Amino acid sequence: MIAQAPARVLIADDQQKVRSALRLLIDQELAFCVVGEANNAEALRQIAAQVMPHIVLLDWELPGLPLNGGRLALVRQAAPDAWVIAMSGRPEARQQALAEGADGFVSKIEPSEAVLRALYSAYERLHDPHRLAAQPHRAV
């Protein structure tokens, strides 16, 4: 059996404590490697273009993100193949994020296991050979 390379994860949240907690959680998992952190939309754009993450953990209220439905466009421009897991402390953001095309959602008030479940779900889909055909917003 060939071992899969760790999925590259970019954490985008304006709160240093949240980024640090997520990094600590993710660094304990062999399936993932945190390749960058961003505290605003511009840093997210720049870092994503440089590190080409497989997964972006995106604070849905990240400073500098457009509020008119273009949040994911910024991420997809910089890292078109990244799976985007939106995060928010506002429960009502789940529906909006998923409607706008986020690949997953985690409430910031859920236990840390919810983040891991979302990451592993994305990891499994990343290694699915049929994923590009099933995801119209993915580059083929």
What overall form do the CA principal axes indicate? Answer: globular
Biggest sheet features? 5 strands, parallel
Q: For the record, give the distance between the C-alpha atoms at the N and C termini, rounded to a whole number.
A: 27 Å
Q: What number of domains?
A: 1
Q: Which series of helices and strands comes N to C?
A: EHEHEHEHEHH
Strand order of the largest sheet: 2-1-3-4-5
Instruction: Kindly provide the radius of gyration, computed on alpha-carbon positions and rounded to a whole number of angstroms.
Output: 14 Å
Helix/sheet category: alpha/beta
- The number of strands is 5
- Estimate the mean pLDDT confidence: 89
CATH superfamily: Response regulator
Reported CATH architecture: 3-Layer(aba) Sandwich
What percentage of residues falls in helices of 4 or more residues? 40-55%
CATH topology: Rossmann fold
Report the total helices: 6
CATH class: Alpha Beta
Give the percentage of residues in beta strands: 15-25%
Stretches where pLDDT falls below 50 for ≥5 residues? 136-140
Layout of SSEs?
Layout: E1 7-12, H1 16-27, E2 32-38, H2 41-51, E3 55-59, H3 71-78, E4 83-88, H4 93-99, E5 104-107, H5 112-126, H6 131-134
Parallel strand pairs: 1-2, 1-3, 3-4, 4-5
Helix pairs in contact: 2-3
Question: How is this structure best summarized?
Answer:
This protein is an alpha/beta fold and 140 residues long. Helix content is 41%, strand content 20%. It is built from six helices and five strands; from the N terminus they run βαβαβαβαβαα.
